[in-house]
Amino acid sequence: MRDDILEAAARVxxxxxxDATTNRVAEVAGVxxxxxxxxxxxxxxxxxxxxxxxxxxVGALLHDGLERHAxxxxxxxxxxxxxxxxxxxxxxxxxxxxxHRHLPHLARQAADSxxxxxxxxxxxxxxxxxxxxxxxxxxxIAAHTAIHMAESLIHAAVxxxxxxFDREALTRSAARALAAYLIRDGAAA
Length: 189
Fold this sequence. Notes:
Layout: H1 2-16, H2 22-29, H3 33-39, H4 43-68, H5 74-90, H6 93-102, H7 104-111, H8 114-129, H9 139-158, H10 167-182
Helix pairs in contact: 1-2, 1-4, 1-6, 4-5, 4-8, 5-9, 5-10, 8-9, 9-10
């Protein structure tokens, strides 16, 4: 039932933003409001749970990208990770906008999540494995910086793209920016 409520909440918040009500979420989920409150005491708890689910989904996508590109050069890995992030943020854009732009405190909470810390560790390992290509001297600093660059660039490309901008061009630009930071001049691309 918890998952059904969260899925209904994702659909409702995607459409209505923070104006959504718990009553509307319960209605879409097909449960009574009392049942909803057994799992989520208020609207903020619902949104927090949706953000946690988003972080886990993004982590899974990035993990898959890291696994698929476990060997090989850094540039294809960067491209794959950027593509995965873009795909994750294009799904339910209204909800994404709510989670990342209207409720930035959720992003700060997620920074300390075990899932995000594990992902940062995996990215650091991937960069360490490509030490010969890596421009920054410290893979930990490179991973931290790249994660924050990617978040900012992806949000700008997907959530805040100015009218008339080609989103695919913005995505390619984000990948180039990350690659330029991470990849040492003269390394294989």
